[in-house]
Design a protein that fits this description.
519 residues; alpha+beta; Lipocalin; TIM Barrel; Immunoglobulin-like; 3 domains; eight-stranded antiparallel barrel; 11 helices; binds alpha-D-galactopyranose
């Protein structure tokens, strides 16, 4: 035992600013739009030095600088993707075991104040890992015999989607010809979630006052409604995920009348490895089946862990094959033209998903959007419009509702098209159709108009097709001879449907290296 005097001396020697911040802290404060999202702080304090990490939405920042003093502490945390660095700064004070924090979203923005509470120790900045189930095959739900068609809120609205916008999209889709053209789903992406009630049920935030009423409204228009969640504790945007509540959430979705679930990985990626993904997706796949309502299951994990090899086994009707699309020519073409090797994995009920459409969002011209729509159709990709359906030009509506192009996408053979020839910036893709014909995309990725030639032998045909149709010009073509040449606009496409010729080879489309077409 130390003498009492020594203990007193020691106590007096502790500087008054050394309140210990060590521990896990969680912020669940309202944002200006009335929604909540979670920030985690994982802090370790030694003397006046504070280290650790801060997690804001899906982003992890490492604390690189700190100060601590009688007026409070400051933290600077940094995140880098290898090329760009992003920093966040917090000022704070510990008061009655609450961490009062202030930060700015941008250096010139106003201060945002928040309060963090202690999270259970030993859990890091996350809940504990739940045990994973043994792998098995989830029952097939029988949905998506052709690629899903609809609308999703993220590309245009991101966090600004709300009940009124969703109703507006349903009104527009039901009245502007999209519904008749085959569009069906109105899908709410991230940022609808609040927290959980005392029984653990997921609740909606104030942007979505009554999800059941909204689903009824969309159903009343003869459409279907989709929602979004994550296998992690939080979604990519930092809202509540389904982690540990999968069955309960699936039941809630079924009770609301939800028809489609997009299930997005990023909130789980620091708890589980890519190798464990399948088990996590299986949990929700089983939960959806158990909930008893047909809910299309769309996996979103950016094509990691070769999802095309197991996506169908977890009950998935579609799986993202890439990172997020942006409304630029480079983003769209880098994604779209990289899908060739995945063709064998697409089939009725189970589709490769190169992400949602950007058609009409303003970052590309109409030729480029025609390329986007044509390529996604040849790829048998989900056609989820991502623009504001209430407000688009006639040209954009025409692109989205071109029934001849949509028929290629929706062809019941369910075959994904392949690249059959490439020369520099020019590519020819072909998709085998149920009736024995083929859809052909002559794509010019170059910045100037270019002549592209397709030879019938490249398509496994001995003679010219018996008939051919230009799917954007909506006209029949008279084709004879051994090939067809056409000038294609910069960044544009000519898309044809050709019937089988009497001389078609038994094998159909030939292999993927027919450079001769451009010689
Ligand atoms: C990820 C997905 C996007 C979108 C956002 C929402 O980035 O890939 O499609 O759902 O999350 O936060």
């Amino acid at each position: 035992m130390k003498p009492l005097g020594t203990v007193l001396l020691l106590l007096l020697a502790v500087p008054c600013f050394a309140a210990d911040l060590t521990g896990n802290w969680v912020v669940r404060d309202p944002l200006p739009d009335g929604t909540f999202r979670t920030t985690y702080l994982d802090l370790h304090q030694e003397g006046s030095r504070i280290t650790g990490s801060i997690r804001v939405t899906q982003f992890y920042f490492k604390i690189i600088e700190s100060t601590d003093g009688p007026d409070g502490f400051t933290l600077t945390a940094s995140m880098t993707d290898g090329t760009n660095e992003r920093r966040v700064k917090y000022e704070g004070q510990l008061m009655d075991d609450e961490l009062h924090l202030a930060t700015r979203r941008r250096p010139d923005a106003e201060l945002i104040h928040m309060v963090a509470h202690r999270a259970p120790l030993g859990e890091g900045a996350y809940p504990a890992r739940l045990p994973l189930p043994a792998i098995h095959k989830v029952a097939d739900n029988g949905l998506a015999k052709t690629p899903p068609m609809g609308w999703n809120s993220w590309n245009k609205f991101a966090g600004r989607v709300d009940d009124a916008a969703v109703r507006g999209m349903a009104d527009a889709m039901a009245s502007n010809g999209m519904k008749e053209a085959g569009y069906q789903y109105i899908n709410i992406d991230d940022t609808w979630e609040a927290g959980r009630d005392a029984q653990g049920h997921i609740t909606t935030n104030k942007k979505f006052p009554d999800m059941k009423a909204l689903a009824d409204y969309v159903h009343g228009k003869g459409l279907k409604i989709g929602i979004y969640s994550s296998p992690g504790p939080n979604t990519c945007a930092g809202y509540e995920g389904s982690y540990g509540h999968e069955e309960q959430d699936a039941e809630t979705y079924a009770a609301w009348g939800i028809d489609y679930l997009k299930y997005d990985w990023c909130g789980a990626r620091n708890l589980y490895t890519d190798q464990e993904m399948r088990a996590l997706y299986q949990i929700m796949g089983d939960a959806l089946v158990k909930a008893g309502r047909p809910i299309l299951y769309s996996l979103c994990q950016y094509g990691r862990a070769e999802v095309w090899k197991w996506g169908a086994e977890v009950g998935g009707n579609a799986w993202r094959t890439t990172g997020d699309i942006r409304d630029t020519w480079d983003s769209m073409t880098n994604i779209g033209f990289s899908q060739d090797q995945l063709a064998p994995w697409a089939a009725p009920g189970h589709w490769n998903d190169p992400d949602m459409l950007e058609v009409g969002n303003g970052g590309m011209n109409d030729d480029e959007y025609r390329t986007h729509m044509s390529l996604w159709s040849i790829l048998a990709a989900p056609l989820l419009a991502g623009n504001d359906l209430r407000n688009m030009t006639p040209a954009i509506l025409e692109i989205l509702t071109n029934r001849e192009v949509i028929a290629v996408n929706q062809d019941k053979a369910g075959k994904q098209g392949r690249r059959i020839a490439k020369s520099g910036d020019q590519e020819v893709w072909a998709k085998a159709l149920f009736d024995g014909g083929q859809a052909i995309g002559l794509f010019n990725r170059g910045g100037a108009p270019a002549k592209i030639t397709v030879k019938w032998t490249d398509l496994g045909m001995k003679t010219a097709p018996a008939s051919a149709r230009d799917l954007w010009a909506h006209g029949d073509l008279k084709l004879d001879g051994a090939e067809y040449s056409v000038t294609v606009p910069a960044h544009g496409v000519v898309m044809l449907k050709i019937a089988a010729s009497s001389g078609i080879a038994a094998t159909g489309i030939r292999g993927p290296t027919l450079r001769a077409a451009f010689n």
